[in-house]
Design a protein that fits this description.
Keywords: DNA-binding, Transcription, Transcription regulation. By secondary structure, this protein is mostly helical. 81% of the residues lie in helices and 0% in strands.
Length: 195
């Protein structure tokens, strides 16, 4: 890795949590320089603008969460246990980041909805990839007779995503991690009911 690549990675690693907590609009160049200890010139020597830093920070935050969830799922053998480990891993990830921003998909979706088309597009791709992954698990479950043949895999995937993101939103809005756990319990019951 070149010195420039190391510096870029360092900037992203140090600013990703800030973007996840404060959002795109709330994160200033001063926040970026304070977090990295670098000058504005050094930041702009590695990124054309704050937009580029924000896009890289979103990728970093998303990949960090996805890698934890994929690792948990890899240990499972059935579709339903993979779905359940997916939910367990998400529950753990959000609980561990509850006071430091939470879910980058939810945070960035809200933050970029009308203000940052490139960032919004990254979130759309992340959600579509998420949906596709869950649909694949549901279809494998149908094929293996773990889940009813007449199940609507897209509807199930969207329900799971909505319960996760809605649970995060409610728990963070009310500042009660217990709400997150209650909603996750309901989601687990939903997954167990898929027959």
């Amino acid at each position: 890795m070149t010195k420039a690549e190391k510096t870029r990675n360092y900037i992203v690693e140090k600013t990703a949590p800030i973007f996840n907590i404060k959002g795109y609009a709330g994160t200033s160049l001063n926040d970026i320089t304070a977090a990295t200890g670098l000058t504005k010139g050094s930041i702009y020597g590695n990124f054309a603008n704050k937009d580029e830093v924000a896009l890289a920070a979103f990728d970093y935050n998303l990949n960090d969460n996805v890698s934890k969830i994929e690792a948990a799922m890899a240990a499972q053998t059935t579709s339903k246990t993979k779905l359940m480990s997916y939910v367990d891993a998400y529950q753990s990830v959000i609980a561990s980041t509850f006071t430091s921003g939470g879910c980058p998909i939810l945070n960035t979706a809200i933050d970029s909805d009308d203000t940052h088309p490139a960032l919004r597009e990254k979130v759309v791709k992340a959600v579509l990839s998420w949906k596709k992954r869950i649909i694949k698990l549901i279809e494998e479950g149908i094929e293996n007779k773990e889940i009813a043949a007449d199940s609507n895999s897209e509807q199930i995937a969207l329900t799971i995503i909505a319960m996760i993101e809605g649970g995060i939103m409610i728990s963070r809005l009310m500042n009660k991690l217990e709400n997150w756990d209650l909603i996750i319990d309901s989601l687990k019951n939903y997954i167990n009911s898929l027959k």
